[in-house]
Design goal:
The complex is a heterodimer of chains A (about 230) and B (about 500). With about 230 residues, chain A is an alpha/beta fold. Helix content of chain A is about 40%, strand content about 20%. Chain B is an alpha+beta fold. Classes of the chains: A alpha/beta (about 230), B alpha+beta (about 500).
Chain lengths: ~230, ~500
């Protein structure tokens, strides 16, 4: 199999951060294209089809959300939002507008790499649902609905199993509370966060070694959850 | 002057009938015998009628009597004597007197009515003008004074406005009894006072704006009664007009101030957003570049790596402080709304420990928690900040090798989260550090003194309490957050669970 070089477009007005992101992209053997505003990015898109977009929300000429909506009209490729906005609603808005994940400034380089890899990998294998998942000493057999931890079977309730399943489908990527609630409980319960949080607590108790310092089922403050791999 | 006028008026009232009767007699005497006596009587009655119109009741009554005298003297035989030959003339005389008196009465009554109506009409005119002025100039601050001057002249009363919101502010010039003041301010009703012995009366009316008395309108009239020509009605209407105009004015003002406030809020949000952006962007670059160097420097000397690690850790701490500052500003400007949700305590612990790890990757933290901790209703992002602040403090004021403990305990009413360190403890009263900009160990360690203050603000917004103590001198400090345990939400029964397999089909 020939390893294709992924194309990444970086849309960021701050030169320092832009070059930092570009240098990380190059060190990950990615093809990098930089734009400093939404208009610039639109021009580049005419003859550059990125596999991944790194997008700053606070751009000089337009809100990054405008870009997300326009980009989504022609491409399903992942968008990673990089934002200094700390208001959780901003992040959720960007995710609802069509972004796939986000990083808050300042971010760690390892975190950046992990997000980029997760988004590129997930995009590659989106229709290639694996029947087996391994998380450290946890093994999940999706087809037979069997979960073991260190070889011992773990009993999950149907809701817990479904939550785990949804997170695993988007593994490495944040899934919003709203999204999870809609998928598990149906559209009428998208604001009943406590259902989710409490089932999530159960799931952690069963799977994690230390529920207060989980390794796999991570909380994303004010936004949702992420299955770390 | 006034007496002279009354005197000359009185003279006219008495003299005119005599003059008219004399003139009539002088003109008619030569015609006696050519004109029938009945017609002469008619002419005398006509004169009484005309006098009634010209001079009013008193004059017409005098005219009736004088006319009878002249008629008897000059026209009834025996002539030039008050004697009467034919007794039936007595009927004529009485008819003349009665008709004269009744006509006078009727005419003058009619005149008074006309007077009254025209006065009322002019008052209505004045009111109309005043109301137009009030409405068109409802933003004018001198509204009341100007409208009073418009009204007082035509109404011929003296009107004064006293600005006062309650009894205590009453102008002593008003000389009001307590009961009267009570009626004005408590019942918010008008008061009419008639001081007969001093020959004047006054009306006091409370002016209301949105149900609140803002002042008293006092209308005083000397001698005449305020109730004639509907002047009291006019004043009442006037006071209502002022109330309406003032209410309109205050509504306009509050609408305007709301607009200004909204603009201010927008500006604040814009400043906060850009501040957050401007502070974080350079931090991100610095931290990122330091990490790039750290990745590439694995072969470099150990000392070099230590310096880079320090840069990275300090960068994270700076980020933490910037976040604290921004959170505080947002909280104090009500920019940040609480986003509470039911959840197990685990998630908050997870988030704060992960954030703490960024600036203190090697620090040991131990969590102890009972099996079944009830769920709490909190804003997780804010509570994470609180725990993070407590952990940062614990790390700052204790030995880097010592363990930090997080202890969770609960009884039926409170969930208690304690952060315990093994440092030197608080050197002075621990709970003073919850005030803004009060720092422990002045000068030696970095810090704004914001951490505990914002923690307290957040905890109190959750109806909880925060308490600091020294475990015992020199062996550590403990800060405890108590959050009320509320009735737990019902979950399992109310959720229509869609089975994943059914949902997929």
């Amino acid at each position: 199999m020939i390893q294709t070089v992924h194309k990444v477009m970086i849309i960021e007005d701050d030169v320092g951060i832009s070059s930092l992101l570009a240098s990380q992209g190059i060190s990950m053997n990615l093809d990098v294209n930089c734009a400093n505003c939404v208009k610039d990015a639109m021009d580049h898109l005419k003859n550059y089809e990125p596999d991944l977009v790194l997008l700053d929300l606070g751009l000089p000429d337009a809100d990054g959300k405008t870009f997300i909506k326009t980009f989504r009209l022609k491409s399903d490729n992942p968008i990673l939002v990089i934002s200094s906005r700390t208001q959780e609603s901003e992040k959720v808005d960007a995710l609802n507008a069509g972004a796939d994940d986000y990083l808050t400034k300042p971010f760690g380089l390892n975190e950046l790499k992990a997000r980029i890899n997760a988004l590129l990998r997930r995009h590659q294998t989106i229709n290639n649902a694996a029947n087996l998942m391994k998380l450290g000493d946890i093994e999940v057999d999706w087809a037979r609905r069997i979960i073991t931890k260190k070889g011992d079977p773990v009993n999950l309730s149907p809701i817990e199993f479904e939550i785990l399943n949804i997170l695993a489908t988007s593994r490495g990527k944040v899934v919003t509370h709203r999204n999870l609630l809609a998928k598990v409980w149906g559209g009428a319960h998208t604001d009943d966060h406590h259902y989710l949080r409490i089932y999530m607590g159960h799931l952690r108790k069963k799977l994690e070694h230390d529920p207060t310092q989980p390794q796999y089922l991570l909380t994303v403050a004010g936004v949702g959850y992420r299955l770390e791999v | 002057m006034k007496n002279q006028q009354t005197f000359s008026g009185l003279l006219g009232v008495v003299v005119l009938p005599i003059v008219v009767a004399s003139l009539l007699s002088f003109l008619l005497t030569p015609l006696l015998g050519k004109i029938d006596l009945a017609n002469i009587v008619m002419l005398f009655l006509l004169s009484t009628f005309l006098i009634a119109i010209a001079n009013g009741r008193t004059s017409s009554s005098i005219s009736a009597i004088v006319n009878v005298g002249y008629f008897d003297y000059f026209f009834v035989s025996p002539l030039y004597s008050f004697n009467v030959d034919d007794a039936q003339y007595l009927i004529t005389f009485s008819v003349m007197i009665i008709v004269g008196l009744v006509t006078g009465q009727l005419v003058s009554g009619l005149k008074e009515k006309v007077n009254d109506i025209s006065s009322r009409a002019s008052i209505i005119n004045v009111l109309q003008n005043t109301s137009q002025t009030l409405i068109s100039r409802s933003t004018d601050l001198n509204l009341i004074e100007e409208s009073i001057s418009l009204l007082a002249g035509p109404l011929s009363v003296s009107v004064l406005f006293y600005k006062c919101k309650n009894k205590k502010e009453l102008d002593p010039q008003l000389h009001l009894h307590d009961e009267v003041a009570n009626v004005l301010f408590t019942s918010q009703k008008e008061v009419f006072q008639d001081f007969g012995q001093y020959q004047y009366s006054r009306i006091l009316m409370p002016i209301l704006v949105q149900g609140q008395v803002i002042g008293i309108l006092s209308a005083t009239d000397v001698a005449k009664s305020l109730t004639i020509f509907g002047r009291d009605e006019a004043l009442r209407t006037f006071s209502h007009l002022i109330s309406i105009a003032l209410s309109q004015q205050s509504l306009q003002q509050s609408a305007k101030s709301r607009e200004i406030e909204a603009e201010g809020e927008k500006l604040k949000t814009a400043i906060l957003t850009s501040l957050s952006h401007d502070l974080r962007t350079p931090l991100t670059t610095m931290l990122g570049l330091a990490q790039v160097l750290r990745q590439k420097s694995s072969s470099q000397t150990e000392g070099f790596n230590t310096i880079l690690d320090q840069i990275i850790q300090q960068g994270h701490r700076l980020t933490h402080k910037v976040s604290n500052l921004l959170e505080l500003v947002k909280f104090q400007h009500k920019e940040r709304t609480m986003n509470k949700a039911w959840q197990p305590i685990d998630e908050v612990l997870e988030l704060s420990l992960r954030s703490f790890r960024e600036s203190h990757p090697a620090r040991g933290v131990q969590v102890s928690m009972p099996e079944d901790v009830p769920a709490i209703c909190i804003d997780d992002v804010l509570m994470e900040r609180v725990l993070c602040n407590l952990l940062e403090n614990a790390a700052k004021f204790s030995d880097p090798d010592s363990m930090i403990q997080i202890q969770i305990q609960n009884d039926s009413r409170y969930l208690k989260i304690s952060v315990v360190d093994q440092g030197c403890g608080f050197l002075s009263d621990p709970n003073q550090f919850f005030q803004i900009f009060v720092r422990g160990d002045s000068g030696k360690k970095s810090g704004f003194g914001l951490g505990l203050f914002i923690s307290k603000t957040i905890v109190e917004a959750h109806e909880g309490t925060i308490f600091a103590e020294n475990i015992s001198p020199q062996i550590g400090a403990r800060v405890t957050i108590s959050l009320p345990i509320l009735e737990q939400p019902n979950i399992s029964s109310s959720v229509p669970f869609i089975h994943p397999l059914a949902a997929n089909q």
